């Protein structure tokens, strides 16, 4: 069964007495361990699609299933639990809490979940994995943009979700730093059998994924399987 199953997804916003149809019948499947990029011009519904799959918003119509759980009809509390346990988020703006250290920012994900296990030990392990073991006690204002985004990635993985949703995760980074973060994403996807759904305007980033979905006018108009080099990572078994 697909990790993510989306059928006939619609989203309509009501603005100024008018209906704005953002998504107009999107179908999507994501397998475990698969990296999928979503590309297209601004305003075609890429971020809206991520927000709906991430249980941050309710669809107007359609079916979404994440890791066997149907989102339609979930209460706000049930959706919050799903987000905490099954989905990690990485955004263009890292949204780290400025008064907390890198370690504390990552630990918070585990504490919000329920305090299971040892949140501190897991946070230290993840920060080490993303190359920040020497920055545990630094606050966001003391970190570079790339380092802050690595903290955000570690935070997204803290609760060991099978799915990570990334909205322009390298959009604010210089080219070299962006390439480093991209490589880290694909390494982690392979090591931990993670699925990534990535919204990006960087076509070279998209071409490193297993598949590319092109959105236009609220619909998936093209699905491409890139012919990538040997660095592209296989699906998890």
In short:
The chain has helices spanning 46-53, 76-86, 102-113, 119-129, 145-157, 175-191, 203-206, and strands at residues 4-15, 18-30, 35-39, 61-66, 69-70, 87-91, 163-167, 195-199, 211-216, 219-224.
Q: Which terms would index this structure?
A:
237 residues; alpha/beta; Rossmann fold; 6-stranded mixed beta sheet; 4-stranded antiparallel beta sheet; 7 helices; 10 strands; 27% strand; disordered C terminus
Characterize the structure shown.
It contains seven helices and ten strands. Helix 3 (102-113) packs across helix 4, helix 3 (102-113) packs parallel to helix 5 and helix 4 (119-129) crosses helix 5. It has a domain at 4-95 and 160-224: P-loop containing nucleotide triphosphate hydrolases (Rossmann fold, 3-Layer(aba) Sandwich). The strands form two sheets. Strands 6-7-8-3-9-10 form a six-stranded mixed sheet, sandwiched between helices. It has a four-stranded antiparallel sheet with strand order 2-1-4-5, covered by helices on one side. Mean pLDDT is 87; it is low at 229-237. The protein is an alpha/beta fold and 237 residues long. It has helices at residues 46-53, 76-86, 102-113, 119-129, 145-157, 175-191, 203-206; strands at 4-15, 18-30, 35-39, 61-66, 69-70, 87-91, 163-167, 195-199, 211-216, 219-224.
